[in-house]
Amino acid sequence: MIEALFFQCLIDRNENIDFAIEHGIKAEDFANANFNKLYKYLLDRWTQNLRTDVNILITVFPAAFISDLYKDVCSLSMFRYYLAEIKEGITKKKIFDLCKKISSSKDPSNKLLENLNLEAMKISNDTNVVDYVRVYDALKIVYSDVLYRIENDKSEFVIKSKFSNLDDIIIGFSKGDFVLIAARPSVGKSAFAINLFEKMKDNALAFFSLEMSKNSILSRLICCATDTPSSRIRSPYIPSEQIEKIDNYVKSFKERNNIYLDNSARLTTMQLLLKAKKMKRETGIDVIFVDYLQLLDSANFFKTKREQVEEISRSLKFIAKELDCVVIALSQLSRKVEDRIDGRPRLSDLRETGALEQDADKIFFLHRKNSEQDEVSQISLIVAKNREGETKDCLFDYNKTYQKFFEKT
User: pTM (2 decimals)?
Assistant: First the structure.
């Protein structure tokens, strides 16, 4: 019995307990009550820096159990093999239990599929072992990346926003970044995201909009890219030269099979992950836009809104890391901003939870400095959090006619 050989190795060489802990072995993973109790006992003594041998165990556990444990003789050199077999058995049992749970569920198929993927992801994460590394070895890798960038003038390590003032501050977006763009309603966060999307179109992109229709998004995209007035894009009277500009812009996307738009009215983070994984597999994905975070559905409908937002925040961070891409999510701000004289947003204004502030690698606030009625809004983009650099403001003019952001020098 592989469990008996595994436990012999823990008892005869207590240092093996460290490897078991490192590989995520838990007491509850053992269905056998005696094995469960034994593992807890070994862990408890090991954390107290107390060694355990057979002589100690026979004073605590039944003699018959200890005798059966040593019925077959283990090989200490084979411990890694025993550990791998134990881990494999635990994983298979989790998969079997999940299948059993799904097959007996009364939930509709789409809900079952979502829960299946969510639980499968948890099982997959449990099987991963994070190894520590020597700082010197890790530093050499980072240093070699720095030299490679300098010597080859390579920019694939970062994705530029193409707004030069912003890029000077954040040095572009790094793959794996979770970025928040937050503002009060009607300040222009969706318009800014569409401007970013247009400027970053040399990359593989996906825009998930839970608020606007495809036509609204693409109309805004055309306006800001071709300097077409938003009122005219819906009019039958468009000058021929403007039509030509729009025609050329539309044709520029003909060969681009790695730019996507999704405007599902209801979307969970698991559905978003599955769609993004498909895009990644087929054509690659560099940047994912989500408009906006609070409209995403949580898989756990019975949790409070705060808990749901925390789960969504963690999931978006996971997607950025898992797919090695940038996730840019728009977010609402609380009404507390409007109670201040200057109306300048703060990190504490992020709605529902502090998890957003904790999970995000970069946080931008859009703050309108003049009247909403003005045709051109003076927007201050506040870099409120930046893990890899400084925090300061960028100034923009937002022309509502063209749905376009212009940098101010």
Answer: 0.68
